[in-house]
Amino acid sequence: MINWLLQPLTYGFMQRGLLASLMVGVLCAVIGCYVVLRSMAFMGDALAHAILPGVAVAYLLNGNLLIGALVAAVLVALGIGFFSRQGILKEDTAIGILFAAALALGVALISTIKTYAVDLTHILFGNILGVSVGDLWLTGGLGVLVLLTILLLYKEFMVISFDPVLAATLRLPLEWLRNLMLILLALTVVVSLQTVGVGLVAAMLVTPGATAYLLTRRLPTMMAVAAAIGAFSSLAGLYLSFYANIASGAAIVLVATAVFMLVYLLAPKRGVLWHALSGNP
Amino acid sequence: MESQEPARLEFEQVTVSYNDHPALSDLTFQVPYGAHVAVVGPNGSGKSTLFKALVGLLPIRSGRILIHGQPLGDHKDCVAYVPQREEVDWRFPVTVEDVVLMGRFGRLGWLKPPTQQDRAVVRRSLAQMGISRLAHRPISELSGGQQQRVFMARALAQEPHILLMDEPFTGVDIATQDATLELLSQLKEQQVTIIVSTHDLSLATGHFDQVLLLNHRLIAYGPPAQVITTQALSEAFGGRILILPGGGVVVDDCCRPEETGSGEVVAKRI
């Protein structure tokens, strides 16, 4: 058994991949709690797709793909905030417009690239086995930055999420905090690209948070449980990927989904099966 | 709470728009320090708009609002607002204590965790609303009346000079209604200015110093006996009023639009 667990770690690329996916799993899960509570799942998915033109431009310019992705994600996040401010458009409408526009731009740019490169597929579906030491430092640095901000602004983010009216009464800078949260989300999405890719980031943002929501009743515990689920899914998913020889991002997401299904059925008080067994409808 | 300055709340020709429609026009009135005011008017007459303008949620188109003689926004913790209960997500993972503690965040400032004193204020507010035993209960498990008390405890924790309550008597049980009225009389002793919107004319006349009759503009303002007249009520409520032979007046406007069908009728004999 121990051998079974240790064997993949004899490879350097597996060590780095494991470290990266653990960091991403925890990071996505923690900020994902706000994504779940503020109904921002659509936003998370949109941001993930919106980075495509940034990546394409960076690729065409021979620049750093992650930085290109970062710039595009932050621009789109702020654009959504701009179009939906003061209720001119509903937020999901603004997201729908910008998300599709960015995706179209990304596809248009990519179609001009003659040699459809491997790197681009990695952006779409993740390439955990190609994580370099530099990538690890970038992931770690951005991850710490995001988590630290969430920790320091814990009470402000909680108030604007639970009761924006109170936040306004307390004269908190609502718009500013909302934009900051979008930027944190954008950073998280970009960092996650290595492990799960554009297509599956939304799952890593939503699934662990939603699972923790079913199990806990306070925000700090919800975040802790979500982080544990995110870490476990990343770990188990990577082993699954190694031994069953399937794509790592997909394996991680499938494990997270399995955990969610289990909890949805069995969670005390809220689980479907729990209700059936205890006789409560 | 101690308040040294004998100040008041003043509206000077205030106009507030909501999506370019003027919701309140040319509102001028003054609330003396420590007064209790009932705001009465039909659905959509601008009662909630009045409150939202007062807490800075809606911009003021023209005119000005003065608190303690200073323009709105100069006071961080002065005004507390108890919104209608459906305005927040009651499945949010926080406990009763967490919610009441949020009332202290305005005083705390950035990056500062709550102090022992903040927690003491929270405990006192919970006790004052009779919900100390619910402190560690998740808010998803509360009844409507308990939710209302949590909001009121949070407003108390803000230690406001002015307390605004939007329809606190609508859709709550008698015990909560009594607790609300009891709180009002306690705050009367502490000289907290209170503005409450209500559909209930008998509560408005029985428990408040002043009544403000509103329908997008000020219809009448003053002591209840002077304001609640057949003429003023018909002006405010229009067709939604029935004048009975013998001077009785029936106002059929209790339920919010989405609740029509389960309406009650409030009658008031003048």
Major sheet details of chain A: none
User: How much of the residues of chain A is beta strand, in percent?
Assistant: under 5%
CATH homology group of chain A: ABC transporter involved in vitamin B12 uptake, BtuC
Q: Specify the oligomeric state.
A: heterodimer
Q: Which architecture of the largest domain in chain B per CATH?
A: 3-Layer(aba) Sandwich
**Count of spatially separate domains of chain A:** 1
CATH class (first level) name of chain A: Mainly Alpha
Mean pLDDT of chain A: 86
Main beta-sheet annotation of chain B: 6 strands, mixed
CATH superfamily of the largest domain in chain B: P-loop containing nucleotide triphosphate hydrolases
N-to-C SSE series of chain A? Answer: HHHHHHHHHHHHHHH
Structural account:
- The complex is a heterodimer of chains A (281) and B (270).
- Chain A is mostly helical.
- The model of chain A has no long low-confidence stretch (mean pLDDT 86).
- In chain A, 80% of the residues lie in helices and 0% in strands.
- In chain A, helix 2 packs parallel to helix 8 and helix 13 (219-244) packs across helix 14.
- Chain A has a single domain, classed as ABC transporter involved in vitamin B12 uptake, BtuC (Orthogonal Bundle).
- Chain A has 15 helices and no strands.
- The N and C termini of chain A lie far apart (42 Å).
- Chain B is α/β, with parallel strands linked by helices and 270 residues long.
- In chain B, 30% of the residues lie in helices and 26% in strands.
- In chain B, the strands form 3 sheets. A 6-stranded mixed beta sheet of chain B has the order 6-7-8-3-9-10, with helices on both faces.
- In chain B, a hairpin with a 2-residue loop joins strand 1 (9-18) and strand 2.
- In chain B, helix 4 (116-128) crosses helix 5 (144-157).
- Classes of the chains: A mainly alpha (281), B alpha/beta (270).
- The A-B interface holds A 37, 87, 152-153, 155-156, 158-159, 161-163, 165-166, 168-172, 213, 216-219, 221-222 and B 19, 55-57, 73, 76-77, 79-81, 83, 87-89, 92-95, 98-99, 102-103, 105-106, 108, 110-111, 138, 140, 154.
